[in-house]
Amino acid sequence: MNKRDEVSEIILLGLSHKTAPLEIREKFTFDEFVLKRFHERARKCGIDEIVYLATCNRVEIYFTAREVHRAIEKLMDLLVEFTGLSRDIYSPYVYKKYSRDVVLHLLTVASSLDSMVIGENEILGQIKQAYRDSVLHKNSGILLNRLFHQSFNTAKKVRTNTGISQHPLSIAYIAVELAKENFCCDLSDKKALLIGAGEMGELILKYLTKNDISEITISNRSLHNAETVVERINKNAHIVPLSEIACTASVVDIIITSVTCHDYLLTYPMIKTIIQGRGNRPLFIIDIAVPRNVDPEVVSLDNVILYNIDNLKEIADRNLENRLNEVNAAMEIVHDDANDLLEWYEGLEMVPMIVKMQESFDRIREDELAKFRRRQLKNLSEEDIQVVDDLTKQIISKILHNPIMAIKQNSALNLNGYHNKEDIKQKLKIIEELFKI
Fold it and tell me: Which one from 56, 184, 247, 261 is the annotated catalytic residue?
């Protein structure tokens, strides 16, 4: 089987809140400019298609390649360059998945069944954005197009046909619940500073408003975006530029931050100065940004309570216990859809072989017909020759029907196991030798 006939393997390299600490994961969050360069460089690693997914809980690289080991090694080296982490540091946290496992994993993730908060709604939007970035950089093709569109459809089925997203929780919801727990469920006399007016910040503002908090100040890089969110959700919220967050932080009780930024917005010296001017009033900070917005060293200061994204897991686990029945129903949908896609994918391996079989037998048919036409059939009219031609085509079609169906069925049987390139190659080699093609 020629190299160009081989179907690329679907591969996943990833790390998540289950395998890697936040200080490792945040190194893999790239801004728009860096992500563009990464996409450009990735294609030189022997990779055919690639989607780079980075969220607050996971970083996953979905890609396809014919030379799997070589592509993985080059991609791992590329990540060293882009993250500044040596392979010795980050590779122990990385998980690798292939073909069937990749399909099952993505459909599970898109359906919010592998999230820190089961049933949350943000992950699907993040996956769609990662796919759009890949399309924008012309790094998605037939395999990842089909895979990601299937994940979108599966997620929709899960939301529609199960109760997994009823009364949906989110990281934003949990952050506000954590603040309520810290202040004995009463926020009516508390002041909050919300840093970030993106999708996550907007959700937090909604939850804070619903809990009748006394006063909310929102700060954002774009004041226009902050004004839009405030106008839509809570017109009583104050707006300040990021340059004034230190002054505002000194008078609030709660800070929740979710800004995309690669430097700390709240530094140790800044928080230390703020605390010194507050007397004994505690400052409750929830940093749900990745990379983090708050210097983790501030946790050592008296009267500072700091939580980050990984600290929210306890509440998330309680959420999971309440949703296990729905998870089981959702996973049935995921497995059914994964099998459908895998049947298509596995079949791609056999298509070139089937075409070669048909072409080989048709060449034999044409050569033999040409010989007979020069001798035994030389007195037949063109109409009669056409009848013989059609007849031989039908005979070849009938002869090949059972072998082709057997090849397809054998491919389908692989759905219960793994997509093994060497196993597929061996089977195709047997077919080539059997039919001399």
Answer: 56
